[in-house]
Every structure is written in C-alpha cells, then in structure tokens.
Amino acid sequence: MRKISASKSTLNMSEVSQLLNEKYNIECGKITLFRILREAGILNYRNLPYQKFVNEGCFIVIRSTRNGFDNMTTLVLPKGLELILDLLLKRRPVKK
Fold first, then answer.
1. What is the DSSP letter of 37?
2. Whole-model pTM?
3. Does the structure show a pLDDT above 60 at 70?
4. So what's the pLDDT on residue 1?
C-alpha cells in the first residue's frame, strides 16, 4: 500500500475522483469510480462498502435524514484512499 496524504481525514467520492485526477493523473470520474469499486467487490449495488472494508478502516458510512428519507453517504478514510489508488493503478491507464 502507498502512503497518501490528503488535507482532510475523510473524503466523499467526488473529492476522491478529483484528487486522483489532480494529484495522481488518473482520469476517473465519480460514477466510474463507483462502478470499479462495485466490480472489485468493495461496494455493494447501493454504493455502500461491505462491512469488511468498514471494519478495516477504509470507509465510514454516514446516515442522515432529509425530507423524511434516510440517506447513506460513503466517506473514504486515508486507508481507503490507498486501497482505491492501488486498485486503479493496476486497472486504469495513467493519462500522459
């Protein structure tokens, strides 16, 4: 695993995709990132991490209520960012 530093301790998927593009030159939008993580068995069909990855300290899930509806948001911790970067470097071409 790589050692990655981000200015925040948690990032949402939009921020992760932006960081990957700007800092690591990996072109990957939020929607594509969700798809890749689902295909890798990290996220389920609702884009929530499997409990194994929460327990390992890669992700946290924040639950909130808006207009009477439950909303779940996946946030990426530094260890999860390392996992995502390693996965993408193996799967995705780096832009030149």
1. H
2. 0.83
3. yes
4. 43
Asked if residues 80 and 2 have their Cβ atoms less than 8 Å apart, the reply is no
**CA angle at 17 for the pair 6 and 78, rounded to the nearest 5°:** 30
pLDDT exceeds cutoff 90 at 95 = no
**Spatial CA neighbour of 9 closest among 85, 92, 78:** 78
User: Is the pLDDT assigned to residue 6 strictly greater than 70?
Assistant: no
* Long-range CB contacts for residues 83-89, cutoff 8 Å, separation at least 24: 83/1, 83/42, 83/53, 83/58, 84/16, 84/20, 84/33, 84/37, 85/2, 85/4, 85/20, 85/24, 85/26, 86/1, 86/2, 87/36, 87/37, 87/40, 87/42, 88/20, 88/26, 88/28, 88/36, 89/26
| Pairwise CA distance, residues 95 & 26, whole Å | 6
Look up residue 9 and give its DSSP letter.
S
